[in-house]
Amino acid sequence: MAAAAGAAAAAAAAAAAAVTAAPRSPGAPTAAARARRLPPLLVLLAAAAAGPGAGGAARLYRAGEDAVWVLDSGSVRGATANSSAAWLVQFYSSWCGHCIGYAPTWRALARDVRDWAAAIRVAALDCAEEENHEVCRAYDIHFYPSFRYFKAFTKDFTTGENFKGPDRELQTVRRTMIDFLQNHTDADRPPACPPLGPIPPSDVLSLMDNRDGRYVAILFENNSSYVGREVILDLLPYENIVVKRVLDADEAFLEKLGVSSLPSCYLIYPNGTRGLMNIGKPLRSFFSSYLKSLPDVRKKLISLPEKPNKEENPEVVIWREFDRSKLYTADLESGLHYLLRVELATHRSLAGAELQTLKDFVTVLAKLFPGRAPVRKLLETLQEWLANLPLDRIPYNAILDLVNNKMRISGIFLINRIKWVGCQGSRPEFRGYTCSLWKLFHTLTVRAGTHPEALDGTGFEDDPQAVLQTIRRYIHTFFGCKECSEHFEEMAKESMDSVKTSDQAILWLWKKHNLVNNRLAGHLSEDPKFPKVPWPSPDLCPACHEEIKGLHSWNEGQVLLFLKQHYGSDNLVDTYAADQEDAHEGGAPPEGGEQERGLVSPEKPQEEQRAKSLRPPSVLPPRPDLSQGLQLGLDGGLQSASRAEGHREVEVAVPFLGMGFSSLDMSLCVVLYVASSLFLMLMYFFFRVRSKRWKVRYHRLSV
């Protein structure tokens, strides 16, 4: 059996290598490559042998393997609400390059302070997971990574306190955690956390006379030092020892105890003997290690992240073969799906500059997006609706209702699952959304250059920077990776104003994309199977590359021709693109559904169990929907929607009538009915009063 298992694992590894290496060959797969295509069974075996880390969902942190507490939509509220410990939670996105790069620091921090778990815990929640979209909205997470503190014994729902450190280095975050603990009052301080404040020098003498059978360590330090508080928390799970700290002791008192430098530790033994600790260096690790090694100092059981009892089912990645010289509709539409339904949806409402940025960006999309007709019609409908909207602030749920086609408008559609093709990565956290966003931006600049008439009447005509500036404002306002948006803003400030023609706009974005690739080459977010190299590569565009005096040089004229061809409509292929009948009506995300990502669906019982766990905790602010909140018609009017039960009754009754009425039509009928009734009543009273006046006047004349 062992030999058979080893052979199977070897075959699986070979299969996995073949699968991941296949897409690197330029151009469409040859007949020989197709002949070498692996059967589906080997693909499944490869993913199973690789384990959940390689084939599973994008997880930067693993419960039971890392010291990080891994939370999700079903556990975050239960963990942070009325907890006996405080929490520091990182809300991140697994596609965010900065989040990927920061993961080793966060894991190292969690390991470093794992002994503090009874007082404060380090956790993480992935907002890119579909099951967590709703809970990240509830916690007002707009950018990644976001760090939130939650105090102990918090009963009411709160979105937490933002991390306010000058940087995110391990030592800075650790010290900010201490400051946060000290901000607790005596009433809500974690019970396992001893007082972290200093004791007066006068209390040292009483500690010397104490005989309670425990060690007493007294750390003398200056005001700016965190060593004493760190050592107190390091010794939190240890018995038979107490750690105190003293500030601003006078020199005579320190000299009497033999303390000549700060920080220093004075140790009182259980038998009453005492003296200065002699350690190699006055550092936190030296103090903590020495105190933990004292006789009879024992570690208590502490609560640590547990490995799930049930092994995670490895999700099997089905690789989609693709041609690197083509642009795929599935990538652009998957990017739009995430942009409209997830990234923008983190904003509860839009007003002012944010609303204007959205209007301008949707206008550019509606006029320049080259995809399929139902998607273009959806964008055009959204653009027209936003343009005619007479409101200064709108809830984003109203936009979501239109994107999800709650109005049942014929002929509009947007896929409701992610399906990467040209943007596939060797692991789920690689490439994906950021890749599709770059492709979308390149496509928009190229379309603006090749079809300038598309922008007529938008206010963007005759402005070569219009599309770039709109992209710039979108990234600055809405893009989830804050550090990425700051880098893009720096590049824009540096040279975007130099763009004078639409061709220069195309080349400007290409140059900056290569600059970003160069900066991220070798970064933890780089996919090893798709290294970040100057693009287009020589095999895609030989004419783009030259050598001048032995140095590589770009032929920008040829690059421009290549970009216009590569991102043109003629190069867009619908292979792997989802059909409308494959999705739910109107393209709305299915209830409790999950991103496809090319994953084999689990069995039905598992799916039902997962759907149940996706529901956010009942104490979270409920997400308002069209039937419970504001309903905005396509004419820009704001309609009052009925409650959910009445809304369902209308939707059940309408098909029976066979007239195709929507809830908006029904509400308009009610409004018109009420208005006409009021008008008739007014007319009745008007003529009634007039007739009385006429009778009085006629009576006087007759007399």
UniProtKB/TrEMBL annotation:
Residues 582-626 are annotated as: Disordered. Keywords: Disulfide bond, FAD, Flavoprotein, Glycoprotein, Membrane, Oxidoreductase, Signal, Transmembrane, Transmembrane helix. The keyword Repressor does not apply. The chain crosses the membrane at residues 670-687. It is an enzyme of class 1 (oxidoreductase). Its cofactor is FAD. It comes from the Eukaryota. Residues 426-535 form the ERV/ALR sulfhydryl oxidase domain. Catalyzes the oxidation of sulfhydryl groups in peptide and protein thiols to disulfides with the reduction of oxygen to hydrogen peroxide. This is Sulfhydryl oxidase.
